[in-house]
Amino acid sequence: MRHVIIGAGAAGLTAARRIRELDSTAEIVVISRDEHVHSRCMLHKYLSGERDERTLNFVSPDFFEKNRITWIKSAEVQAIVPDRKNVVLGDNQMVCYDKLLIATGADSFIPPVGDFRTAGNVFGLRNLSDAQEIVKHIKPQGKVIIVGSGLVGMDAAYGLLEKKMDVTVVEMADRILPIQLDEAAGNEYKKLFEKAGCKFILNRKASETILDSQNNVSQLILDDKTVLDCDVIIVAAGVRPAIACTIESGIDVEKNIKVNEYMETSVRDIYAAGDVAGMSGIWPNAMKQGCTAAENMCGNRTAYEDTYAMKNTINFFGLVTLSLGRGQVQEGDKVVIREDSKCYKRAIIREDKLDSVLLQGNMDYAGVYQYLIKNNIKLKAEDDIFKKSFADYYKVRTDGQYEYNL
Fold this sequence. Notes:
Blueprint: E1 2-6, H1 10-22, E2 27-31, H2 43-48, H3 63-66, E3 69-72, E4 77-81, E5 86-89, E6 94-96, E7 99-102, E8 106-108, E9 122-123, H4 128-137, E10 143-147, H5 151-162, E11 166-171, H6 183-195, E12 199-202, E13 206-211, E14 217-222, E15 227-229, E16 232-235, E17 239-241, E18 270-272, H7 283-297, E19 311-316, E20 319-325, E21 334-339, E22 344-350, E23 353-360, H8 366-374, E24 394-396, E25 402-404
Parallel strand pairs: 1-2, 1-7, 2-3, 7-18, 9-16, 10-11, 10-16, 11-12
Antiparallel strand pairs: 4-5, 5-6, 8-17, 13-14, 14-15, 19-20, 20-23, 21-22, 22-23, 24-25
Helix pairs in contact: 1-7
């Protein structure tokens, strides 16, 4: 049996490892456009100089050799041909498969603002190649504008502040990290970033660009006509699933590749996992999906069940925050806030159930809150959500282990 995996990220390599565990005789081929295996969660450390291509690797140096995996790197899949059960690479090389997994991840979305899509100094920050290009273009103490203050944008700011760059973040919302945090929690990070030298322009959008003679953006104009000088622009405006290889393959695609609970696409013997499948944008879930796909590729009918993905952990300047759930207050919700000098907590209770919780500075009982949200547990009217602990829900199994009792 020949398994071909497109993508060397969390989903792809987890699948490759699991296939080897399940089938010692299978032939496994991984195809990636990347030359290096890398954790995208650590790209800001590449910008800061704390890590290089070697130390971004999240698998052992002998991973491919030990698992007897053929790795075709620096290769782009141009087409998937299900009728012939092969994929075509950019150099016209054809790679045949019995089972195919698409784990190509996602790419940065660059909005059509001015010359963002054609200028030589505008980058996303999704892959190592993005980070490598940014590092090539930054100058000592140069001016960097980051458009968007979500996690990727603030990661980039953090890394470049470590390099003593002149960093300005432009955000269309009225606060930073607007999807992950409320105003109070976001302001704590804003103060820390400002202390490190970062500047913020909130409630503003990028509107136009001015190019220099080298086709680089030298000035960014905002929607209020503010003009900002820049050497590099990093756009952190979201991502799009990397689905280019599926064009004309017959695989059912909307915004992402459509899969069922077995990670199967609409085409027989082709699976998808990770960001490209659109089920979750977080690393642990991508690994679980890769593992589930591997089980099914090897004939073990296994459903993917962990669809919960509303979890973010943030740590800048030593201040840790965990957000669980949707985090958006709706009419009729009960919002509970506790705050002292060391921590900030906010819970959103909807229809007597914990919908979301935000913990900043103190992560105690995070596991209990996650369990309540994931399992849609109803709370009692007299419950104080911030006095709940595992002790309220546990029982002892016959083997002496503790487990939830709900």
